[in-house]
Amino acid sequence: MEMDRKKIDKMLTLGMNKKERAALKRMLEKVLYNIAEP
Fold first, then answer.
1. Could you list the residue range(s) of the whole structural domain that residue 10 is in?
2. Which residues, including other chains, have CB under 8 Å from residue 13's CB and lie 6 or more apart?
3. Of 23, 24, 27, 36, whose CA is between 20 and 30 Å from 12?
4. 4 compared with 14, residue with greater pLDDT
């Protein structure tokens, strides 16, 4: 699971700059946090 996520992350972030990656990461963490804490 973790490896798949890393591979997907790499594919998604190849065309992005550092700022975009940081924003995407924050967004994903917020979504995951909301799922974990109903």
1. 2-36
2. 20, 21, 24
3. 36
4. 4
